[in-house]
Write a structure and sequence with these properties.
Radius of gyration: 21 Å
CATH topology of the largest domain: Arc Repressor Mutant, subunit A
CATH architecture of the largest domain: Orthogonal Bundle
Oligomer: single chain
Structural class: alpha/beta
Low-confidence stretches: 1-35, 42-53
CATH superfamily of the largest domain: Winged helix-like DNA-binding domain superfamily/Winged helix DNA-binding domain
Order of helices and strands: HEEHEEEHEHHEHHEH
Strand order of the largest sheet: 5-4-3-6
CATH class of the largest domain: Mainly Alpha
Helix content: 25-40%
Largest sheet: 4 strands, mixed
Number of helices: 8
Length: about 230
């Protein structure tokens, strides 16, 4: 995976349309370009970088193969900020940009990162491997309440949106819980797959219903083994 930056296309715009633009131009929600005066030796691109690029968080991408397909883990420093399936890359990027405004993704220099090891152990049957992992999902205070509650659901067990609403002492918020659950940015570690519809149906999982069913069955299988 090569390095990725959402600024690539904007820089191309700056390079190709410089002569046609007014002195000030709004490029994106996170960058305003102050174009140089006519005859100035300062380039538009350098102004663009000073205006927007320097404050972009540098995120590291950690790829992982799993029984359910390729997974991407994203860290900021030593904090885990995103986990999603590779085929849900657009969703992952949308959530990251909604939080940070812009992101600068880089390949991790550490292929055996601790979070990858934990998740690999989980898939190998150690359901406790994800316990106690510190996550940094961002979100509103309500979303954080919901996502924190997810971590209290034991592996192999499921709850409903209504159960969570009651658990966070907001019994009328079942629908809002469903929306927060759908925006879970750190799959597995914040186990939104353990949440079912009111009739115990497999609903509301960004990775797909088949993956949700596999995860619940995986957990039930190894949880039963641990009892003997």
């Amino acid at each position: 995976m090569s390095d990725y930056s959402p600024f690539t296309d904007h820089l191309r715009v700056a390079e190709t349309t410089y002569a046609k633009q007014p002195r000030h131009q709004y490029i994106s929600p996170y960058c305003f370009v102050d174009w140089p005066d006519e005859g100035s030796t300062k380039s538009a691109v350098s102004v663009y970088l000073v205006s927007g690029f320097m404050n972009i968080p540098k995120l590291y991408v950690h790829p992982l193969d799993s029984p359910l397909g390729k997974i991407t883990l994203v860290t900021l420093g030593d904090r885990l900020v995103s986990v999603d399936f590779d085929d849900c890359h657009a969703r992952m990027l949308k959530l990251l940009e909604a939080r940070f405004g812009a992101v600068d993704l880089h390949k991790s220099p550490d292929p055996n990162h601790v979070y990858c090891d934990r998740l690999q152990s989980y898939f190998s049957g150690d359901l406790s491997a994800l316990n106690g992992v510190s996550t940094d999902p961002g979100g509103t205070s309500f979303q954080q309440q919901v996502w924190s509650y997810l971590q209290t659901i034991p592996p192999g067990q499921t709850v409903t949106y209504k159960d969570i609403a009651q658990g966070i002492l907001n019994p009328r918020a079942a629908q809002a819980v469903g929306r927060a659950n759908a925006l879970d940015p750190i799959l597995f570690f914040l186990p939104c797959h353990r949440v079912m519809g009111s009739n115990q149906s497999y609903v509301g999982y960004s990775g797909g219903i088949e993956r949700k069913a596999w995860l619940i069955q995986h957990e039930k299988q190894y949880e039963q083994r641990s009892l003997f």
